[in-house]
């Protein structure tokens, strides 16, 4: 199970399990749920997130070319190989570790069309039960 909470620019919470993605946002004050069964795109996203959070980057070497951009703290760039379906949408993914190199600091996803998504991690907590923690109603 992966969960996160965002305060800015819009408050929202997301909980991802092996069965579904549940998201709440402040604007609608509604919970939306998407089943992962029969949805290979979402299942792939969940698998990728699990790898990014686990730090098991060696497992990505069959699907990505990997470059070390910085040694301390480590910054890695992952470029999808031609055989990787993600290459149709993603130009590259940059993973930055914190100074202590124990946790992710940032994930930056650059899309083929030029758009990018940057996820910055602050106050990272692992192995905390997600039920009821900042996800009321989700």
Round the Cα radius of gyration to an integer and report it: 16 Å
Q: Give the averaged pLDDT, no decimals.
A: 83
Structural class of the secondary structure composition? mainly beta
Biggest sheet record: 5 strands, antiparallel
Q: In percent terms, what proportion of residues is strand? A: 35-45%
Description:
The protein has about 140 residues and is mostly beta strands. It has a domain at about 55-120. Helices cover about 10% and strands about 40% of the residues. The chain is built from 1 helix and 9 strands, in the order ββββαβββββ. The strands form 2 sheets. The protein has a 5-stranded antiparallel beta sheet with strand order 5-6-7-8-9, with no helix packed on it. The protein has a 4-stranded antiparallel beta sheet with strand order 1-2-3-4, with helices on one face. Strand 7 and strand 8 (about 105-110) form a beta hairpin. The two termini are about 15 Å apart. The model has no long low-confidence stretch (mean pLDDT about 85).
Characteristic terms for this protein:
single chain, 138 residues, mainly beta, 1 helix, 9 strands
